[in-house]
Every structure is written in C-alpha cells, then in structure tokens.
Amino acid sequence: MAKKKAVQAAKTDLQRLRDWLAAYPGYDILGNFRVDYTDQVAGGGGLYPQGLVEISRSEDILGNVTVRDQYNFGLYIALPKAPGDDLGAEINADWLMDFQRWVQQQSVRGLAPTFGNADPRAETIKANSGALYDAGEEGMATYMVVLSAEFTTRYEVI
Description:
The protein is of the alpha+beta class. It is 24% helix and 41% strand. It has a single domain (9-155), classed as 2-Layer Sandwich (STM4215-like), CATH 3.30.2000. It has a five-stranded mixed sheet with strand order 1-2-3-5-4, with helices on one face. The relative contact order is 0.20.
C-alpha cells in the first residue's frame, strides 16, 4: 500500500481547488462540473482558470525572492430560471450568496486550500461579483462568480 501511495502524483493546484469546491454543502446541484466548459443543462458548471497574476516581488540581501501572487477563476453555474420566474431567481440568488459566504468562511477559518509556501495563514480565497451572467428564453440562466486566491511563495537561493 505504501508503494502505491508513493507512485501517486501530487495533486495540482487546480485539482485541489476542485476537490475543495466539491466540499461545499450546496455542491450537489452541480452534477456536471467541468474545467473550461459550461453547457446550458441544469446543474452544469464550469471553472475557468484565468491564470496567475504576480502582485509583487521582493528580494532580500541574500538573493532570496518573495512573490505575492493571485490565481483568478471564473465559476459559471447553469441553473433553471424561466423568464419572469421570481421564485426561481430568488432560489438561485440565495444559492449564489450562500456559496460566496461559504468561501469567505472557509478562507477565514483556514479550511480553504493553500497555494504558497511562505505563510498559509495570510492566504485568502474570495468569491466576488456573483451575478446573473445570462438568462435564456428556454428557462436556463447562467450565474458567474469570480474566485481569487492570493498567496505568497518564497524562492530561496541554493
């Protein structure tokens, strides 16, 4: 068994993020969650990585470099919403706001995945700008949330 564990590759940052998102109590409505793709089927969702943004970089007198980075993701969720259906819209908005609050709580409590190596307690994950992205006449709506993770990585001179 130990040999099998040694053969398994470490999870990527994207895999760890997806695993964490699956822990959200309301995740069950996302039966068809993919990377870089969202279809217009109820429960469809997609996580769109937008890459890494370097926020700052500093170097100490020994040449060690500390970098503050940010990952950004667009999270799209397809949910049923008929035109003029206020109740459906309210249910969807409640889900979206609950998800955003969950992300905040997970980050504050240190339960969200970490990506840097310098100070995991200073890392943050945020779910911002949750909004209706598109609503079709066929009774489906796409909602979007911007996920961002800020973290610090220290590169030491060898």
